[in-house]
Amino acid sequence: MKDGVVFFLSAVLLTVLAGCGHHDEHHEHDEAAEHHAHDEIVFEPEKAKAAGVVVEEIMPSTFHGVIHTSGKVTAASCDETTVVATISGRVSYKSHVSEGLKVANGTALFTITSAGMQVADGDPVQRARIDFEKAERDYHRAQQLINDRIISQKDLEVAKAEYEATKLTYNSVQHTRSAGGVIVTAPRGGYVKQCLVSEGDYVEAGQPLLILTQNQHLYLRAEVPERRFNELNNIKSAKFRTSYSDKLYDITDMGGHIQSYGRSAELNNSYIPVIFEFNNTGDVVQGSYAEIYLITSEREHVMSVPMTALTEEQGLHYVYIQVDEEGYRKQEVTLGERDGDRVEICSGIESGDKVVVKGAIQVKLASASNVIPAHTHNH
Predict the structure, then answer these.
(1) CA distances from 138 to 130, 135, 293 (A)
(2) Is-contact 237 299, C-beta < 8 A?
(3) Up-side HSE of residue 158: CA atoms within 13 Å toward CB?
(4) Torsion of CA 76, 77, 83, 88, to 10 degrees
(5) pLDDT at 172 over 50
(6) What total number of domains does the chain contain?
(7) What whole-number distance in Å separates Cα of residue 266 and Cα of residue 218?
(8) What is the CATH number of the domain that holds 165?
(9) Is 85 exposed, middle or buried (0-12, 13-18, 19+ CB in 10 A)?
(10) What is the DSSP letter of 199?
């Protein structure tokens, strides 16, 4: 009898203990499910589409090394022409000339006159005529002397060159003279980049008056720290963003190429210049400062996402991963190199993850909304 009672009590005790263990297991499972549901962000497909949410499946691909630096956009030297004074005298503007003005080839820009002034060379047209006539006499005489073998062929060529130069100057001054002086015209079409003289200024012959630019080609000058000198040979291209716009420009898309780079750091600083030339698309301003991404050697099997996929909180970076049709998960990531368009992800995502690449801020706002109910998979 005692043995039967003992057996009965033992069975009851085991049943109670088993029930407790089973209850704990269910409790832990429920907590995990509740935690998972709490972490998952619900954003219904219709609302996500309306908010502009776009998801991209991330796979390892080719990326590249990047040197992140700064620099400036300048005019290409081949695009600029300096207009100079053809004679000495006082300058008058022929018409309204201001920076940015478009002028055609041959447009009258200035009049230079020496009237009423004591100019050392005298009247410019008269002086040009005297120089031409003297050179003409010297050339004809040289032609006679060469036949008598008194002078060398080289002496004849020098006399001929002087004759042709003075003839060109004389004809030019004659044709451009007006009632008020000598007219200075644009030697080519383009835009006025800089006026170097003011109305009424006195100028010497050969003095710069104005700079014209065709504005067709531009230079991008990047300043690279000298510690990265060994990487300069690997630079293939560049991307840049100007100080006045968020638009990212790609040198390659603009018909550009690397023009040159320095072989040593410049005086008084520790930076080496790298120069790119590219076609002006019309929306890049000369003289503007730029944030520059120099593209170097390619690397394989790199995980990267568009810059638009990132959000930041207290110095940490996050992306949002789509886990099902209406569920998203916030994921911390560590970053590598960035080229202004995409950024390398060193850890935090895996191949095949569906990452929100547009509308990440909208998903973040959805996660903070108290209106959104807790999401579970019990549909």
Answers:
(1) 12, 5, 61
(2) no
(3) 6
(4) 140
(5) yes
(6) 3
(7) 22
(8) 1.10.287
(9) buried
(10) T
Give the pLDDT mean for 142-158. 85
Measured distance CA(361)–CA(45) in Å, rounded: 16
Rounded to whole angstroms, the maximal C-alpha distance in the chain is: 158
Q: Which residue has the tokens 């269910």?
A: 26
pLDDT at 291 over 90: yes
Contacts of 138 (CB under 8 A, 6+ apart): 159, 162, 163
CA distance 317 to 338: 14
Residue 156: predicted pLDDT: 86
Residue 254 has which token pair? Answer: 């603009």
Separation between Cα atoms, residue 147 and residue 102, nearest integer Å: 53
- Structural domain boundaries enclosing 349: 41-60+303-379
Which token pair is 218? 């531009």
Both tokens of 361, joined, read 């801020």
- E strand or H helix at 360, and its extent? helix 360-368
Amino acid of residue 38: H
Which of 91-100, 186-195, 263-272 is predicted least confidently? Answer: 263-272
How is residue 277 written in tokens?
A: 């030339």
For residue 210 the two structure tokens come to: 């104005």
This model's pTM is above 0.85? no
What CATH number corresponds to the domain at position 353? Answer: 2.40.420.20
Q: Residue 229 sits in a domain of what CATH number?
A: 2.40.30.170
Cβ pair 288, 320 in contact under 8 A: no
pLDDT tens profile 305-349: 999 999 999 999 999 999 998 899 999 999 999 999 999 999 999
